[in-house]
């Protein structure tokens, strides 16, 4: 196990439920020729929150005003927390962003139309983003896992945090709102990378999670 002599400080970004849309679904929900309207930039360069919101519906309930994040993607992806999944009555898998095959479905409602989404709903696996240079310094590569420690009264350790290395991105730790609430975390707080995770921890963890959902 690689342990860092000095824990590496990483800013926290809390992801509330949100949706990434494909061009086709954007037009289906907001009208033909509609373009995303940027509301504010996100911490990661090139990413932004949009003025557009949609309603997500499942067999048990609906969640209105779910923020659309830009830019557009090749496939629509809905990211919700486990609490949200109970409210909607659907069972999304815990997945890395972009890994959507066989994921859950839902209904999306916009001002100009409705989309029946057969798959694309996930609980996003917590992860850190890193630029290529930052990854080199920390001796991490894409798909590694690290353990991240959080201080304070609800201090805890997040094991098996996925490492995502990509050109142009910045060091940031992404958790969903359930995970943030478990540690009293808010966007802009700091957490600390303490070590690389063991492979074994990863498989035990995934099996446990898969059995439960
Ligand atoms: Zn992220």
Automatic annotation (TrEMBL):
Q: Which GO terms describe its biological process?
A: 1,2-propanediol catabolic process
Q: Name one GO molecular function term.
A: metal ion binding
Q: Which UniProt keywords apply?
A: Acyltransferase, Metal-binding, Transferase, Zinc
Q: Which Pfam families match?
A: PTAC (PF06130)
Q: What is its EC number?
A: 2.3.1.222
Database matches in InterPro entries: PTAC (IPR008300)
Q: In which pathway does it act?
A: Polyol metabolism; 1,2-propanediol degradation
Which reaction is this enzyme known to catalyze?
propanoyl-CoA + phosphate = propanoyl phosphate + CoA
Transmembrane ranges, per UniProt, are none
> What cofactor requirement does the entry state?
Zn(2+)
Protein role: Involved in 1,2-propanediol (1,2-PD) degradation by catalyzing the conversion of propanoyl-CoA to propanoyl-phosphate.
Q: Hey, which family's this protein in? A: Belongs to the PduL family.
The molecule here is called Phosphate propanoyltransferase
């Amino acid at each position: 196990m690689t342990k860092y002599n000095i824990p590496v400080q990483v800013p926290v970004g809390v992801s509330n439920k949100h949706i990434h849309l494909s061009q086709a679904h954007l037009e289906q929900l907001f009208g033909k020729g509609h373009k995303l309207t940027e509301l504010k930039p996100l911490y990661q360069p090139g990413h932004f929150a949009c003025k557009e919101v949609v309603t997500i519906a499942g067999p048990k309930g609906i969640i209105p005003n779910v923020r659309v994040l830009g830019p557009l993607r090749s496939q629509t992806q809905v990211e919700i927390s486990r609490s949200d999944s109970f409210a909607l009555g659907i069972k999304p898998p815990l997945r890395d962003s972009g890994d959507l095959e066989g994921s859950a479905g839902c209904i999306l409602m916009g001002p100009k139309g409705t989309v029946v989404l057969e798959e694309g709903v996930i609980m996003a696996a917590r992860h850190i983003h890193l630029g290529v240079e930052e990854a080199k310094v920390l001796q991490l590569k894409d798909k590694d896992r690290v353990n991240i420690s959080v201080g304070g009264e609800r201090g805890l350790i997040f094991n098996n945090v996925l490492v995502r290395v990509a050109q142009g991105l910045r060091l940031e730790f992404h958790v969903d709102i359930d995970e943030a609430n478990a540690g009293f975390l808010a966007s802009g707080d700091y957490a600390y990378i303490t070590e690389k995770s063991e492979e074994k921890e990863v498989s035990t963890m995934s099996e446990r999670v898969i059995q439960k959902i």
